[in-house]
Design goal:
The chain is an alpha/beta fold. Helices cover 49% and strands 10% of the residues. α13 links the parallel β7 and β8. The longest helix is centred in the first third of the chain and has 17 residues.
Amino acid sequence: MRYAYFLGCITPLRYPGIEAATKIVLKELGVEVIELNGASCCPAPGVFGSFDLWNWLILAARNLDLAEDLDAKIVVTCNGCYGSLQEAHHLLEDVVRREAVNEVLAKIGRRYEGRTEVKHVTEVLLEDVGAEELKKRVKKPLKGLKVAVHYGCHFLKPSKIRGHGSPEAPTYLDELVELTGAESIDYLDKLMCCGAGGGVRAGRLDVALDFTLEKVRNIKRAGGDVIVTPCAFCHFQFDTGQRELMSKGLLDKPVPVAFITQLIGLAMGFSPDEMGLNDNFIPPKYLEKIS
């Protein structure tokens, strides 16, 4: 189990705690994580890919080739990066298309052969490590903790490429959460967007925050103690977005946010500080129930 960690943009720039937690947890579980030096933006699927599919594909192919040089699979902690790199890999299975891309990559001395596999960290945990092994590693079961899972858009669709079962009734992330001893709760509009995707946060922050507020209200009504995401960008929107909502007087008490590897790390016995949770914008006092 050897993976090149594709950090993306949000994790190193805003939430290095996600990187720290992911590396600590994977190392503890016997997964080797190596650096993917020289990687660029994935590039962003919803914005870049929608306007310029060709150059989006070339940039993604270059990132895939970096991992191919290392003879390693790619692991990601962002749904957007997952969407771009996995879909690019899928598109480049077409030999004619791949050769056209390689004509461009040749100008910088690169050639992508199509061998790189792209996995989300949740897939590494459930498929490579396995549920039984994860259960054995739980030292501090999170019993009594009610977790509101947020899947995020690119994690589930297009479902034929993602392979996580039904995009309308997913259980993949819920199953992973419950291995920690926590309860994954149902809540209204569970599959709704966090609000940030597709350039909405950048172009219409008010609309993005409306989405976030609606989801947080629904989570609070269902008794959720913490929001758990598999995506650094969704994590950013829930954490930073709730702070922005509080500053506008639209939200009183926020719901803390944890990335999936941070939650698993807590169940494995690591502290909130080791898992980078205290670096969130939501004040640490709101993390008391998971400390």
